[in-house]
Specification:
The chain has about 550 residues and is mostly helical. Among the domains are: about 55 residues, no CATH class; about 110 residues, no CATH class; about 55 residues. It is about 55% helix and about 5% strand. It is built from 28 helices and five strands. The strands form two sheets. A three-stranded antiparallel β-sheet has the order 1-3-2. Strands 4-5 form a two-stranded antiparallel ribbon. The radius of gyration is 25 Å and the shape is globular.
């Protein structure tokens, strides 16, 4: 059926399946977007088809200085590749980042991102907002203790007060989960260490936990800040070990229920299938069972005091913040894991198993393939994955070194000319970074976080342990494309929503967002816009419409 004059464009509905979890009710509440969408259907249909069916296509470059045409073409291509590299390893280009890569050159810029400055600072206004969050004012340990007290005080109470205590305890988890998402949002938009922030999200998705399960939300700020972020570009073995000792992971994958005589295999199975070896990694069901035995006793510390254990085992109790190894719950029998005998030794068994998993050739290939797909798109070349896996093994799982091998490959350079389809997180962050680059720091992140929910990818809300899918086919459905247009319109035409605080509904004085295509003419960022996209943008009646078309264009759907 063809689109009617008053219907949103059905963007290749037959070719692409619906994107998951698009919140249509929230999208419909965006002011004037749907009416604009209907009016512009004839213009947007060609762009939608391109977005779903074709890689980036080279368009005419912006006019250049009086140079020999060949020299100008080389300069234009260099600028386009530098801008594409910037878009690939950051959360999206900004004028400041474009100036920085031009100043440093692509190789020095890349090294600065691979080895981030630990003293880099967020803008003061952004840091103040992060400092005001509950996760900055109260530790996970104190929040856990507060929840425990609420529940203990309600024991024996009437059903009403008991239910209220449970709701109050859950509210602590929800608030901390929301604040962790807010902190990640601010860092993605404003941190100078862009690759570190992008890799933090990558590993949070790889080692996924669901913030709404039990009290995972209470610990998730600590999970991101202590387990993931410090190791995002470090050694994979250290990253794996840190996630394994995180209360968020232990609660989410039920290892708190794993004890000698009452084995729970859930975490052991996902640890091999999703976190390390991969589903084709060569392990057996016996390996799952033996790893589950090795993991017995890993859990969450009870603030009421140390666990009660026999005197002979007291020296083996290990506690670090909320992490607890309780030897009274551990299976001390010998295990046979991945062809190796691991003698019963308590927590030392866990370290031995981590070493075997982190240094296994199957892990090197599985992690390399996932990194390559993330930065190059679906089905990365096997030769690139092989080189990355060799670097991974030779460097003892050095993530930055493995990425360096990827970025140095000619295949990666070629992929910069094609682009990788953006999932919703990349799409929303890149649109905000570009459109609001000349505005003050966002005061209200809620509209941005709501956009991620509307597009089906809210932070830390993936129910299953496999994390959000990242293939183009997962995010290129007709509903997703329509929703992205409306998100583009909201960002381009209604920035004030991001700068109103509390119940304020009045106008906010903001600098005018420039015509982004004109603003970036000649810097390479949009050198590959197709003639169709340029023609559509040229028909815009004002800068807001032009920016909407640009942010909704097929080229902007790729990074």
């Amino acid at each position: 059926m063809s689109a009617g004059p008053f219907d949103p464009p059905p963007i290749l509905t037959a070719c692409c399946r619906q994107a998951p979890s698009v919140n249509q009710k929230s999208i419909r509440s965006m002011p004037s977007s749907r009416s604009l969408l209907r009016r512009l259907a004839p213009l947007l249909l060609p762009l939608a088809a391109l977005a779903l069916s074709a890689p980036l296509r080279a368009g005419p470059a912006a006019p250049g200085p009086a140079l020999h045409p060949a020299a100008w073409d080389r300069q234009a291509e260099t600028r386009a590749l530098d801008a594409a590299l910037l878009n690939r390893i950051t959360w999206g280009a900004t004028p400041a980042e474009l100036a920085r890569i031009r100043e440093l050159g692509p190789q020095r810029y890349l090294q600065a991102q691979l080895h981030p400055d630990p003293n880099a600072r967020l803008p003061a206004a952004v840091q103040q907002r992060i400092d005001a969050l509950s996760i900055s004012r109260q530790s996970a340990e104190d929040a856990h203790a507060a929840q425990r007290k609420l529940r203990q005080d309600a024991r024996g109470a009437a059903p009403g007060p008991k239910q209220q205590a449970q709701r109050d305890a859950r509210a602590i988890s929800r608030q901390r989960a929301d604040d962790t998402a807010t902190r990640a949002f601010y860092r993605a938009l404003y941190s100078p260490n862009q690759l570190q922030e992008q890799m933090t999200w990558f590993w949070m998705n790889h080692f996924n936990v669901y913030a709404a399960k039990n009290d995972v939300g209470t610990y998730i700020d600590q999970y991101e800040e202590r387990a993931i972020r410090p190791h995002a570009l470090g050694k994979f073995r250290d990253l794996l070990a840190a996630t394994l000792r995180s209360p968020a992971m232990l609660v989410y994958l039920d290892n708190t229920q794993n004890a000698a005589g009452r084995i729970n295999e859930n975490y052991a199975r996902e640890l091999m299938e999703l976190h390390t070896l991969g589903v084709k990694g060569g392990y057996t069901q016996a390996d799952v069972q033996e790893l589950a035995r090795i993991l017995t006793g890993l859990g969450v510390h009870n603030p009421a005091g140390p666990p009660k254990v026999r005197p002979a085992l007291r020296g083996q109790v290990a506690q670090d913040g909320l992490f607890l190894f309780n030897p009274a719950r551990h299976d001390y029998g010998d295990k046979r894991f991945l062809g190796h005998t691991i003698h019963g030794a308590g927590l030392a068994e866990v370290d031995e198993a981590v070493n075997l998993l982190a240094r296994h050739p199957a892990t090197a290939r599985f992690i390399s393939a996932k990194l390559a797909a993330y930065f190059m798109g679906d089905a990365p070349p096997a030769a690139v994955v092989d080189r990355m896996a060799r670097t991974f093994l030779a460097s003892d799982g050095d993530i930055a070194a493995t990425l360096q091998t990827l970025y140095a490959s000619p295949e990666f350079t070629q992929s910069l000319k094609i682009g990788v389809f953006k999932d919703p997180v990349h799409y929303v962050y890149s649109a905000l970074r570009l459109a609001y680059a000349d505005l003050p720091p966002i005061a209200n992140p809620r509209p941005g976080l709501a956009m991620l929910r509307q597009l089906g990818q809210p932070l830390n809300q993936r129910l299953t342990p496999d994390g959000y899918p990242l293939a183009q086919s997962d995010w290129a459905g007709s509903g997703q494309m329509t929703a992205r247009f409306e998100v583009a319109r909201a960002i381009a035409a209604a920035p004030q929503a991001f700068f109103r605080e509390g119940g304020d509904r009045g106008p906010v004085e903001l600098p005018r967002i420039p015509d982004l295509l004109r603003e970036h003419a000649g810097d390479g960022l949009f050198a590959r816009l197709s003639p169709t996209t340029r023609d559509t943008i040229a028909q815009a009646r004002n800068a807001r419409d032009a920016n909407t078309y640009l942010l909704a264009s097929p080229e902007f759907m790729r990074r």
